[in-house]
Amino acid sequence: MDIYNARVKTKQNILLDGLDLKVQSDTCVVYVPGLAGKFDNLGKIVALFCKNNKINFIWARTQSCFIETEVIKINENKAIKVPSGAEYDNFDNSIYDVSAWAKYALQKHKKLVFIGHCYGCNKITYFLSQFHSEKFKECIFIAPADFFNIFTDPRHYGLLEEAIKNVKAQQPNKILSRTVLGFCPMTSAAFLRMGYNPRLNNIPYVSNGNFSQLNNINLHLSIIIGSKDRGLGKDVSDDTAEKYIKNIANSYKNTTYYIIKGAKHSFKENEYKIYDTLNKILVNPNLIKE
What we know:
Blueprint: E1 4-9, E2 14-20, E3 27-32, H1 41-52, E4 56-59, E5 69-75, E6 78-84, H2 94-106, E7 111-117, H3 119-130, E8 136-142, H4 159-168, H5 188-196, E9 221-226, H6 238-251, E10 255-260, H7 271-283
Helix pairs in contact: 1-7, 2-3, 4-5
């Protein structure tokens, strides 16, 4: 697959490196990955779907992509490296990141489709709740995240107290003694930002919280979720997946949802089912041909 490096500069003067399929097409998919941020098998299957259907594809890195990394910031015409990645997550920056990629895509394409995985869905929701355009045609969430229990998750026992202690000791960037969500090293300040930011938990389909951001999108929303996604709770099943996803459909009326039985959060070994579902959403109704 011929996919090329791409770079955007945000309003914060941050340079972000992503990927661009560069297919000659009126329609472009802007794909925002989750917290880990890799161009993984899920991203690759979406890119392959786009290539086969002559849709352009952009893998839109954000500042909180990857575990530990750096980004370049232009400061007084000088390029300096600043810490970045999930380790230093700040959700509020995502609106600048997604906005920069949308602007990049609109330079060559007349219609944009936004696809997010996990945390990427929250970032897309935040962006689309603030920015509207007749060129935005569809929003697709793959395994959206509800962060309501970030402090009470058993894996994080004691981390809230540890993070507060470090911040009070003027050590906000001290890495917590255990990983967040079972895989992500995170600074104390980033962990507190993740749990205390009301703008972040904007798809509260498990906790059934505030859907106001989602209700300000004004696009058709398609949701794809696996029935074995542990984000649905300990007792995941086809029934709980149906129950929770209906919380979104009941709160955001312009919603179509698809439950992939047996699939987990990353859809490993079920990527082809994502391909088939995207075909139902974008090709069969001829959305991309309009």
